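Suppose a colleague, Dr. K., hands you the sequence of a protein chain of 152 amino acids and asks what its three-dimensional shape might be. Before reaching for any lab equipment, you can write down a predicted structure in token form. Begin with the sequence itself:
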Amino acid sequence: MEWKGYVGRLLYVDLSEEKLSDRELAEEEVEMYIGGIGLAAKIVCEEVNPRVDPFAPENVLVFMTGPLTGTLVPTSGRYVVAAKSPLTLAWGEAHASGFWAVELKKAGYDGIVVRGRASSPVYLYIHDGNAELRDAARLWGLTTREAESSIR
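The predicted structure, expressed as tokens, is then:
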């Protein structure tokens, strides 16, 4: 379902349980919490205990696109990454741009919510609306460029 610039689906990744699940976005959510920052703030505030240690597996790391992602609007390739910050012990966010946000939308997701701690190295592989955690042991110790080449 596509409405108001959203695909309508979030990917939840629990690294501790090695589980992936989808959650449908409600139309009320995208109307009340405008854009990727608004949705990320909603998720962090609702799903993270304010007293949790930022490095604890109970914290979440949210990657969120916005309604303009993938359109012809200038700077529409941006996304936000949000969590409880280890620096401030409060809300923390960073913004990035490039092809990643557009590719995530094309794969069928508006955002990714990651929690937990993996027992061994893994990476998240998303392609054509399907997501899976894959073993990353062979990538451990490689440079970013080497790891990217090996995955592709």
